[in-house]
Amino acid sequence: MDNVNKLTAISLAVAAALPMMASADVMITEYVEGSSNNKAIELYNGGDTAIDLAGYKLVRYKDGATVASDMVALDGQSIAPKTTKVILNSSAVITLNQGVDSYSGSLSFNGGDAVALVKDDAVVDIIGDVPTPAGWGLDVTLKRKLDALVANTVFNAAQWEQLPKDTFSGLGYLEAPAEPEVPLFSCSGAKIVPIYQVQGAGESSPFVPEGAFESEAEVTVRGVVTARGESLFKGFYLQEVKGDNSPYTSDGVFVFLGEAAPEAIQPGVEVCVQGKVKEYFGLTQIDIKADKKFEVGAKGEVPVAAPFYVADGETLAQALERYEGMNVALDAGSDLKISRTFSYDYAGRRNNMLVSYKEPLMKSTQLYPALSAEATALVKSNLENQLFIESDYKPADGVIPYFPDFNVETGYIRVGDQLTNLQGVIGYSYGAYRLVATNTITAGDFIRGDDRTDAPSVATKGDLRVASFNVLNFFNDVDGGDTNPSGSNRGALTLEEMVLQRTKIVSAITAMNADIVGLMEIANNGFGEKSAIKNLVDALNEKQTPENAYSFVEITDADKYDGKYFGTDAITVGMLYRGGKVTLAGAAQAIDTPEQHASAGSVTRTKDGKTETNPGNDAYQRHSLAQTFKIHDESLTVVVNHLKSKGSGCLEDWANFEESVDPADQQGKCNAFRVSAAKVLGETLKDVKGDLLIIGDMNAYGMEDPIRVLTDFDASKSERDIMTASWTTLDGKVFERQGSKIEKGYGLINLNTKAHGAGTYSYSYNGELGNLDHALANASLAKRLVDIEDWHINSVESNLFEYGKKFSGDLAKSENAFSASDHDPVIVALSYPAPVVPPKPEPTPKDDGGALGYLGLVLMSLFGLQRRRR
To answer: Where does the LTD domain start and stop, copy by copy (predicted)?
Structure first.
């Protein structure tokens, strides 16, 4: 039995089990599943008398369910004979024609939901099979055919006509109302203004007066269509065939229709339009939405895409302004590098990709101190060095429309790759330039920069290797794991996902070949048989030789919260080590970090003469883990850390009116709170004997305050103060009621900076690279440095390759190390040579015969004889 027949059989079986009415005059005649809240159901009364809708309601069968859920009760409504009533979502943006009877309610359904009209819980009419196939009825309008005006309790698709998304014109009419005849627009006799004159050489059109957003009069332009826009930019793009050959003016312009262009307007067709010139949030366009003044001409060739380049001395943004509205092609000379792989753009609320000129963007505070002139300049420079790569329609999960061969093994994209051979039109929205792709590319169109490697180069260097690895919420809840203090699961949602995540982490750690591994974001569910750390180590050791097997460090019972956990968070830090390479020296040490507690009303802030008091504030940080090891006769103390995240706010953010925005210093929220933790770490570890290595996700970039405090900060040489947080406690006691000024750093050495300079990275956020993951050493350990590497298996890869399937659709996953997490592991190779043992003197070899042996016997005999004679 094929799938259609199977589904029909299931639907009939379900329908047979539902209460039904034999016949009905009222029925569903139109279904609208449009953009956002644009949902509508049209009902029709085919009888000769009015029908009271008391007891009637609209229900849906959500996502394949066989039991309906209520949407809109129709009590108090009625339908006159031979007329319609349109039920609308109360937030729909749908304009009905005058005189249409309508009612608004909480109408909410999506593609994949069947919708039924019921009376007294008996089905009167239904649209969609039950259970409903995924994606059925998505982004369409369905209109009942006039020869099928009979209510059905089983859906019959043949009775329905499918119309494009957001088609509302027929709502309220069984037949579409006659459109009034409008005389066709003609450009005949109009003065044609060249498109390049409309665009001009500046950032806005010379036709738009300064301080205004549109021209005073309409202009008429003629060009050839290069692309249609049906979703992201609704209209079409026109371009001069010859242009003015000036590099300073664009030969193309966007024509705004507010909807998809008529079918006659296709690439290659000549079109003449008349409308006002508008600067719409930075995009120069001809607006013909209201009057639709256009004339379609002959069809020819699409203008050849112009090679895009950035001229000497100009920014990427300035170059893009010269091409705004044009059809362009990226080639090797464009020199555009991937700065964020294909993923979710929160500003545009869609999946897209980000490129920048010459090299990926670096986080300003990775390279320069916060609020320094250099950091401020880099923030501005980065904003001017961004081009988003888009598709017109929002792509399906796991799909890149312009790169159909996207896959985890051979069709991947990495930050730093150069993008070539992609063509598209240049637009501007959400404060950024966007290239809307018009062709497709292959993996060969990406010029690889720093390509994948099967193992880090430091994996075989030095005598000992220490790694730091954030494992992206490794939880084993779905594998029968113990619970954590919060009872939440931040990790895999299915056993299949959890096994894949673990396999990828094991692949990465095995390739690192590290002897000590610090872990972050592992579930805080103890150290027993059902703990996440035991689960991971068992799987890891299956891939190791016996001499390279790992064990995990366990804190003492006295340091365990509730007798089991390492702190109270859902996640914690951990440490693995190879007992064949290093020996534990004493018990592990839990280093408590500060908490912040300010009761409501204890702090005030003032702005524009208005004073407010704070809401209650409580902030926490994860504790740090220290363990000393013996290597030969040397002592090494490793400290694993995961400081407070940048996302959730602290008291200082509220006090600076930045609780709902990104802090102006570019260091993220809770910066002072992380400084407090850095101070505690520095004080706790300043007297450690032997070598010291502080590793982990510090949630602070290379030149941000917490890292400067732990390294070489000197207040006397700084342009701004570094302060700790106020209202902090430590181990239940008051730590600092008021924030204090840091005068001097603790002198640790940033090993990445020492080896490679400041421009290193382990993490990508919002298209910018930087190091959140660090290795900081005291002077004696720094002398042992052989090499350090951020192994770029995660930060530069697509997060669609991670273990979770929620946003990746049918995209195949891989067990390899790439996208095992969102942070790169940091691996440090150290020199710990074995002690040199002086060679023992070898004994004189014995002679077992021969002439010399015989002579010796004779001499001994004579000597003995002489002695006897004496």
So the answer is: 16-157
